């Protein structure tokens, strides 16, 4: 069993750019992809922010997952 998670808890979280330039042609879809990228970045930043409270984390996670679900 590997124990990679003990060294860096966010190591398995790879950056996702949500850049679908050849696929996304509608401006509304481009906006959703940009919002997804920004909300994911903000959510990952909150994991290491010592001033973050559970309400901030919940709101940011809800925003990110609502964008993923449509």
Automatic annotation (TrEMBL):
Full protein name: BROX protein
Q: Which organism is it from?
A: Hippolais icterina (icterine warbler)
